[in-house]
Amino acid sequence: MASTQNEIYERARLARDTRFDGRFFIGVRTTGIYCRPICPANPPKSENVSFFPTAAAAAEAGYRPCLRCRPESAPGTPAWAGTSTTVQRGLRLIANGALDEGSIESLSDRLGVTSRHLRRLFRKHLGASPQAVAHTQRLHFAKRLIDDTRLPLSRVAEAAGYGSIRRFNDAFLNSYGRAPGALRKLREEIPSEDGAAMSVTLSYRQPFDWPAMLRYLAPRATPGVEVVEADSYRRTVAIGDSKGMIEIYPEPRRDRLRMTLHGVTTANLFQSVQRARTMLDLDAPVDDIARALARDRLLARRLESLPGIRVPGAWDGFELAVRAILGQQVSVAGATTLAGRLAERYGEPLDSAHDARSGDPARLFPTPRRLAKAPLEELGVIGSRASAIRSLARMVLAGDLDFDDAQDEAAFVARITSIKGIGEWTAQYLCMRVLKNPDAFPATDLGLRKAFEPARRLAPGELNSMAEDWRPWRAYAAMLLWQNSNTKGG
Fold first, then answer.
1. Is 445 a known active-site residue?
2. Spatial separation of the C-alpha atoms in residues 216 and 211, rounded to whole Å
C-alpha cells in the first residue's frame, strides 16, 4: 500500500500536479530541504527523495522549508483527510492554539484519550508529534507574515505565538538557517496597508468559486453585521480582546484571497485567519469530493456548473445557531430581516478605530447574555422560536453548550436538540456549517427532498437511502443541491 502511495506521489511531483499541493511534501536528501509537489526547481532524482504526509513530518525528520516553493503557502491539509476522528479533532484544536499555552496532557484530556495514545495516533496518521504539528503551524504562519505583510518583526513574533524575540529568531535560524530579517529582504514587493489595518493572504485549494460563495452568503448576510458587495465580504468581529471588522476579497491575478482586518490586535491575528479559512472552507479536498459525488449521475451534472463546491462555515457558532432558528419554516429573506432586527436592537455598536466607509457593517451580533432574556416577540419572532433562542443563550451562558468544532458530534446533537423547538434539521445544519462535519446531512430539509423530483417530495428515509452513496461527503452534496436548485438551504 505504501509503495503504491509513493508511486502516486512520484508521478504527482514529476508532473507538478497542483491537485496534490499541500497533500504531501518532498524531502530532498541531497539538499536537506522539503518542498511542495509544485516546486519550480528542477526535480531531484527519485533515489534522493522521501515523501512525507505533512510539513511537520518533514521538519521533524530534519528537513528545512524550501525558499522557492514556500511550503508555508501551500493550501492546508484537510483536517479529516485519511485520519481518525481523534486526530481530526486534535488538529482542529491545535489549529485554534490548543498547544500554544496548554500541554499535550491537557489536549489529550480534551480528546478523551491518554497523551501516549494521542502521540501514537499522530505519528501513525501524520508522521509527526502533536508538538511538531503545532511548531510547524506557528513557524509557517510567521513566515507568511514576514513575506506578505509590513508588520514589524516584533509583531510577527507576537502574532505567531512566540513568547519572545529570542525564541522567534532561534526558531527561524534552526528551521531556515536564516534570521527573520534576512528572510524579509528576499520577499516580493507587497501592497501598502491602510493605517492601522493589517492585511494577510488566504491561499485555497483549487478550484474555488468565490462568486458562488458570495451568492450563498449575500442573501443570508445579517444587516448591520455583514455586507456582501461586488466581489467582497465584510463583517464585524469580536475575537479575544478585539472588536473590529474584516474584509475579504480576491487578489488580482493571483489564486488567493486577501483579508484586511480593522481593529483586530496582532495577538488575535492567527485565530482570525483560522476562523476565516474555516468559514470559507478553503482547505476542502475538492478533487476527492468531486470524484465521489460524480459517481451519481444527477450530482455529476450539478458539479459541472459548480466545480470546487464548498460548505460555508460560520464566523461564530452561536450567531449561526440563532440564524438557523430564525430560519425555521420561513424564507431566507424573512430570516435575514429578523436577524437584522435582532442586531439593531441587541447588537453592540462598533466603536471602530478605522475610517468607516458608508455601508460598512457597524454592529456586532448580539451575545448570548444579551439574548438570554430578550423579548424577541416584540421584533416579530414567533413565541416558540423566541423561546428556543433564549434557551439556547442560557445553555451557552451556563457552559452546557458550546460550538467548539472539535467536540464529539453526537454529544453536541443530543445537547442542542434537548432545547424545545430545535430539531434534527437545525442540528444537522449546524454540524455541517459549525462543526464542519463533511458527512452531516439534514435529510428532513424540504429543498433537498424536492431537489430530484420537484413534483414529489421524497420521504426523509428515501433521501437518506439515496444519500448513502454520497458518503463521506453528504454535506457537500446538500450544498450542491441547494445552490443548483436555488432552494432554501438555511
1. yes
2. 9
